């Protein structure tokens, strides 16, 4: 309980209650053009929604959109080709085949980065949309602090049902960890749905070379390499700088998605694994201890008081984070989501330990 309260007091609450980041002063803040990279595999309908919103971004220095068509079997190629006729800042990179043994997405992203014209790179996924037309501007202002990597937040759209709330709770909790840790000077990951870094940073890490054969990790393992190369990492977490995605609609789809995401964790630095594992482990220990004590003969007054203090503080921290990140969940449901999530996380960990095979679309 003390460990969890320590995380809330040192990371989560100060991050949620921090003052808003002042806009960078001077014309140089918006002076650098940017390359926006989107990797797509059979994402035509999502691209029809995303690309018009990207073209409407308000960024005076200008930007290009590099769409990497990764072996799509739909009409992605024709659709983007039509756009290039009307918008000279839209460019198409086609991937016909991925070399044996390489991660398809990392290979496709590498090809896109090689043809990008601008030193600054901004990444999102085809199934995301920017939260506002200021997305590019806000994500780019992080480079003026200065920085080599800018971490953004990517939320999931609200929908009816308990699964949707659990997916959004997991996203909020993950965001709370990687954003607040980075804010405290301990960056360890980012999400490819909302991530920016420079060409120089990509070269410093030798691209995805250290994990090109791992299926996932084009975002979090890249940040791991960037930190090892002493690249500067900052956070841009204002709501207008977020992206929004459609969440998994079935438990099976979310299970597959989380298995892929968690599989990269074993490649993290030891200090990061300890920091994250300590938070996850103490939460699981808290709930297992609670269950054991419920069936023993404890002194109910201190047990209830401790459980109430821990749950109240943690839920207040999560509620404040939800307000700051504009990703609110029902406060009354937070204790239930917290308990369900950590047991679900334990099941995922056991599944990854027993069955390590993963597939890519």
Automatic annotation (TrEMBL):
| InterPro entries reported for this sequence | Glyco_trans_2-like (IPR001173), Nucleotide-diphossugar_trans (IPR029044)
Domain annotation Glycosyltransferase 2-like: ranges? 35-169
Q: Where would you find the membrane-spanning parts of this chain?
A: 276-294, 331-355
Q: Which Gene Ontology molecular function entries are recorded, alphabetically?
A: glycosyltransferase activity
Q: Has keyword Signal?
A: no
Highest taxon above the source species: Bacteria
Write the Enzyme Commission number(s) for this entry: 2.4.-.-
Annotated keywords: Glycosyltransferase, Membrane, Transferase, Transmembrane, Transmembrane helix
* Recorded family membership: Belongs to the glycosyltransferase 2 family.
* Name of the protein: Glycosyltransferase
Provide the species name: Hymenobacter cellulosilyticus
